[in-house]
Amino acid sequence: MREPQLHRQTVVVIGGSAGIGLETARAARGEGADVVITGRSAERLERAAQQVDAHSSAAFDADDTAALERFFEGLPAPIDHVFIAAHTGKPTYGPMLDRSPEEVGRGIGERVTQVLEIARRAAPRMRPGGTLVLTGGSVKKIERDAGIAPAAFAVLPPFTAALALELAPVRVNLIQAGFVDTALAASFFADPADLEARREELRATLPIRRVVGPADLAALAVHLMVNTAITGAAYDIDGGQQLIA
């Protein structure tokens, strides 16, 4: 029997009521962490907190800076790790020239702005050597219909590296995901048959011969929390999708 890797540590999951966030909270709890989860929906968050035996939970919108400030100021003890799974809406797809400058700016900068506001409030409460783990998309192929979505994802690795220098000795790392089989991913498909066709396509073509799930990202997130030699890094987790794109 080994010692739990996050024993006596506190992990905060922003966007922990479902999908990748919930699975990461579950994995961290399994490694002995005290878990604090947040989410927009109070009802869904309550169910999630019970599932993972969370230490506490707080319902608010992660884009609400005043709510973020109240949340971190209200935490009773120093924290070790913050995992950001909350999203800022669906990626902005479609031709860029069809969109206003304001839409383009929001599409590229929303994730960066959200993370900065979380980091600004979380870092003073974090122990040295803890980590801020970001999530983003892994887009290696540029297509006309993708619009500015690839640019929004591409800005995250250098942003992560720069933020790691600013927040040191708190560490900052990025998980870049391809298709992950979650309810959020399913919402992009109007027809369930199209969703299942996508799953079948990935099972047939990905080198791992299966679809990436939330538990895969959760395992990587816990590793980044535990391995104190890693900072400023970006990890692709897409089942090898970029190798066949």
Brief summary of the model shown:
This protein has 245 residues and is of the alpha/beta class. It has helices spanning 19-30, 42-52, 65-74, 101-122, 149-154, 156-167, 183-186, 192-205, 214-226, 241-244, and strands at residues 10-14, 34-39, 56-59, 79-84, 126-137, 171-177, 234-237.
Brief descriptors of the model:
single chain; 245 residues; alpha/beta; Rossmann fold; seven-stranded parallel β-sheet; globular
Structure, described:
- The chain has ten helices and seven strands.
- By secondary structure, the protein is α/β, with parallel strands linked by helices.
- The protein has one domain: NAD(P)-binding Rossmann-like Domain (Rossmann fold, 3-Layer(aba) Sandwich), CATH 3.40.50.
- It has a seven-stranded parallel β-sheet, sandwiched between helices.
- Helix 1 (19-30) links the parallel strand 1 and strand 2 (34-39).
- Helix 3 runs parallel beside helix 4 (101-122).
- The longest helix has 22 residues, at 101-122.
- The model has no long low-confidence stretch (mean pLDDT 91).
Relevant CATH superfamily:
NAD(P)-binding Rossmann-like Domain
CATH topology: Rossmann fold
Structural class label: alpha/beta
Chain oligomer state: single chain
Distance between the termini: 42 Å
Q: Indicate the overall shape.
A: globular
> In total, how many domains does the architecture comprise?
1
CATH class wording = Alpha Beta
Q: Which residues sit in consecutive blocks of at least 5 with pLDDT less than 50?
A: none
Strand order in space, largest sheet: 3-2-1-4-5-6-7
Query: For the CA atoms, what is the radius of gyration?
Result: 18 Å
- Helix fraction bin: 40-55%
Report the count of strand segments: 7
Strand content: 15-25%
Count of alpha/pi helices: 10
Write the CATH architecture name. 3-Layer(aba) Sandwich
Order of helical and strand elements: EHEHEHEHEHHEHHHEH
Q: Could you give a short account of the major beta sheet? A: 7 strands, parallel
Mean pLDDT: 91
